[in-house]
Each structure stands twice: as C-alpha cells, then as structure tokens.
Design brief:
With about 300 residues, this protein is mainly beta. About 0% of the residues lie in helices and about 45% in strands. The strands form seven sheets. It has a nine-stranded antiparallel beta sheet with strand order 11-12-13-14-28-24-23-18-21, with no helix packed on it. It has a six-stranded antiparallel beta sheet with strand order 17-26-25-22-19-20, with no helix packed on it. A five-stranded antiparallel beta sheet has the order 1-2-3-4-5, with no helix packed on it. The protein is globular and about 55 Å long. The two termini are about 20 Å apart.
C-alpha cells in the first residue's frame, strides 16, 4: 500500500493483488486507475489532474441530472445548486469533489468514508462507506450508505468509470447491453419517455460493434443473470480482449456514453459504463427512487471483470 499526499486529487491509495492494481483517491473517493497485468482497463487520469468528465466518480445521492435542480419530497420543495449551467440542471450528486477519509486498508483492499452534511437543497445527512478490492476476479466495489438524519431521505447511486480496450477504437468495440428499453431524452438530456430497443440502432442485446453510434443513453428493463444481477460487456472484434462491468440487482439501469461531447484527446477514446439504481431525474419522477428511513442502511455491489 502506497500513499502520495501532494496530489491535486489528494491522498492516493494503491491496492494490489493477483496481478491487479487500482488507485483510489481522497478527492471524491474516486477510482483513478485500474489495471490487470499490463492492461489498462480504466481510462483514468493522473494524480495531478482533476477528474475529467466525471471519470471514476461516485454519483450520489443521485446519478445523472435533475431538471432545473428542483424537486419535491415529503411534501416539501427543494432547490439544488445548478452544477451544469448549460442545461440548467443539477448533475451527479454531492460527493464527487469532497475529501473522503481512510477507514480501513489492506494490501488488496481499501475502505473510504464520507459524511455528507445536510445542506440547502438536500437537508439530510448521510454516511457513505465504499470498500474497493482487487483480486483474481477483477475489481469489486461494495457501497454502503446510512441515513444519519431524523427524516426519510431520497437516495440514488451510480459510478462513472470509462472503460477501454488497448488498441481498439470505440467504433470497433463490440458492445453488449442486456436491456429491452432506452430512455428518450430531450436536448437537455432529460427523460421524456421510453421505447423498446428491439430492431433499432440502440439494440445491443446481442453483441455488435458500436460503429458510428453516438451514445449518451440510459438503458432499462434489464435481462438479469442467474445470480440476480446484470452486466455490460465490451470486447475486441477478434475476441482477444473483453471486459465486463457488472452490478447486483440493486442496479436497474445502465448509462452508456461514447464520449462524443468530450474535447481533445478524450474525444471518443473510451466508453463510460455506468450501473445506476435509478434513471435520470428520479428525484422528480420517483422512478426506482430509494427512500432511506432514519438510521437505515443500504448497500450494493458492482465491479469490473477483465
């Protein structure tokens, strides 16, 4: 275990086991890098960089966007800060730029914690606890949250890793998404409906190349695996490399982003594969929104399997 304290992203914790290595950082509790052997699995960032395009971030207590940052819960209305001004939305939660603390560490695992204080727009306090582990099966993340306030609190969760296959362009990546519907979005990337993917350019239920498809798309109505979870797969055309991103049954939605709105060298360089507990704007729609009772804990597990 190594720690580097003078970095823009704060203290760095490196975990290693069975030829797998990941680096977690203090600012945001972010997954900065992950490799298996000599393969870079995650398209991350350097210690002196600020997480670009939400790379590796934990998205909580909501993923994606909330329309106008405005919602009603428990009979009261709330206004969040607008964090994506161009679309006038509150995006990706409240934990991604805060400093997390070390709770536990071992050669192959590290646990980070963050106390989210009650604040304007989200007047509930939570304690988040994330355990990251690497081993022969890849990278595993166990997320726990406890409602430490005295009222019910709305909750949603996601993560934002970018996945890559060395030497394989995004157009050539073979993608499989086990979903029967996609969310229709307006110009602000907010949901306006849902349609079936069968027979359309968004149907990736059987593996096929991404090609020229431009994706910043929410997929739902998942086909679950025997263990109760689901997974999204990217692979090289010749089958020489493959990566699964998996999530347990708590994750009912997947967001796939091919990076077309990113600039410079990150343009369409990798694919963000985000397991989500709820779709965009869930604080307003209530769709798959989790409600935590006072003192209640909730947990979910996801991972990356190269």
């Amino acid at each position: 275990m190594t720690s580097v304290v003078r970095a823009k992203s704060g203290t760095q914790w490196t975990i290693e086991a069975d030829g797998h290595q990941a680096v977690l950082v203090e600012v945001g509790g972010v997954l900065r890098s992950y490799r298996a052997g000599d393969r870079e699995i995650v398209d991350g960032f350097g210690p002196q960089e600020i997480s670009p395009a939400s790379a590796g971030q934990i998205l909580a207590p909501w993923p994606n966007r909330i329309r106008d940052g405005h919602y009603t819960f428990g009979g009261a209305t709330h206004q969040l800060a607008i964090t994506e001004p161009a679309r006038n939305v509150a995006i990706h939660g409240l934990t991604n730029w805060s400093r997390w603390r070390l709770a536990d560490e071992s050669p192959g695992a590290v646990t980070l914690e963050f106390d989210l204080p009650a604040q304007l727009g989200y007047p509930w306090s939570l304690t988040l606890r994330t355990r990251w582990q690497v081993g022969s099966d890849g990278l595993r993340c166990e997320q726990e949250v406890v409602n430490t306030s005295d009222e019910e609190a709305p909750w949603g969760y996601s993560v934002h890793p970018y996945l890559q296959l060395s030497g394989v362009a995004v157009d050539d990546i073979v993608l499989r998404v086990p979903a029967r519907i996609r969310v229709l979005a307006d110009a602000r990337l907010l949901p306006i409906g849902a349609v079936k993917v069968a027979g359309t350019e968004y149907d990736f239920t059987e593996p096929r190349k991404i090609g020229e498809a431009v994706l910043d798309t929410t997929f739902g109505d998942l086909e679950y695996e025997p263990d109760g979870g689901s997974s999204v797969t990217i692979a090289a055309p010749d089958g020489s490399a493959k990566v699964d991103v998996w999530g347990d049954r708590n994750f009912k939605w997947w967001q796939i982003f091919t990076g077309d709105t990113l600039h410079g060298e990150r343009f369409r360089r990798s694919v963000a594969i985000e397991p989500m507990t709820c779709p965009p704007d869930a604080f307003r729609s209530g769709r798959d929104l989790i409600v935590l009772a006072p003192g209640q804990s909730w947990s979910a597990t996801w991972g990356i399997r190269p």
